[in-house]
Amino acid sequence: MRRADRLFQIVQLIRGRRLTTAAHLAQRLEVSERTIYRDIADLQHQGVPIEGEAGVGYRLGAGFDLPPLMFSHDEARALVASVRMAQVWQDPALAQAAEVALGKILSVLPTAARVAAQSMAIYAPPIGLEPAVQTTLQTLREAVQARRKLRLDYRDASDRLSQRTLRPLGCFYWGKVWTLAAWCETRHDFRSFRLDRMDRVRLLDGPAGQFRDEAGKTLADYLRAVAPAQIQAKWSTEG
After folding, report:
1. φ and ψ at 90, to 5 degrees?
2. What is the tens place of the pLDDT at every residue in 13-66?
């Protein structure tokens, strides 16, 4: 990677996160942390408002932006392929938003890149999630975003029915199956629930239906407690 391209990528990576460490940047760009420190210093010298310090992390100051991005042919193909595959495994609202977003991106591409992307020979037949599961996924995703508690009727692998009150933390896709990671207020512990075993999902109303992150009950705590080490390492570098 040319140094100019690396500097551009550093700004892109920093502006997409609340706080970005030099270690994360070095891993993503496959260079040493010393190189990252030097590049950050050069960007700051050039007037890019990068805040923070070595050993703590960096973030981009408010009000700074870059010119619109241009995608290579391979990048445009990757976007089309990703949207096509993801749409059949997403909830309806996200699938529609992905289609609209992709259309906006394709509309500003040079003609050659747009044609190359749209002719990508990768397709995903519409045999993904059942409609009921799609609807449940949207409800759960929106509950996670809004920090809304749920009341859940759930059948386990032995078809035993139980009722749970949950703090939804995140939705995870495992290949044909989605699960909800949650703090179960009924069991006072983390639990994972398959969407296709959910009989009924209800959002709790009023102030009692809202929750805030509490130490020991967050998604990060769930990942540390439940996820395999390799998955923890992957997700700890995202977002």
Report:
1. -105, 170
2. 887 677 889 999 999 899 999 999 999 999 888 888 888 877 788 988 876 665
Cα–Cα dist 126/69, whole Å: 31
Which residue pairs, CB below 8 angstroms and at least 24 apart, start in 111-120?
112/73, 113/71, 113/72, 113/73, 113/76, 114/76, 116/73, 116/76, 116/77, 117/73, 117/76, 117/77, 117/79, 117/80, 118/80, 120/77, 120/80, 120/81, 120/84
Of 188, 169, 187, the residue nearest 227 (C-alpha): 169
Burial 156-193 (b: 16+ CB within 10 A, else e): eeeeeeeebbbbbbbbeeeeeebbbbbbbeeeeebbeb
Query: Three-state SS across 121-156?
Result: CCCCCCCCCCHHHHHHHHHHHHHHHHCECEEEEEEC
pLDDT digits 0-9 by tens, 97-130: 888 888 888 887 778 888 888 888 888 887 778 8
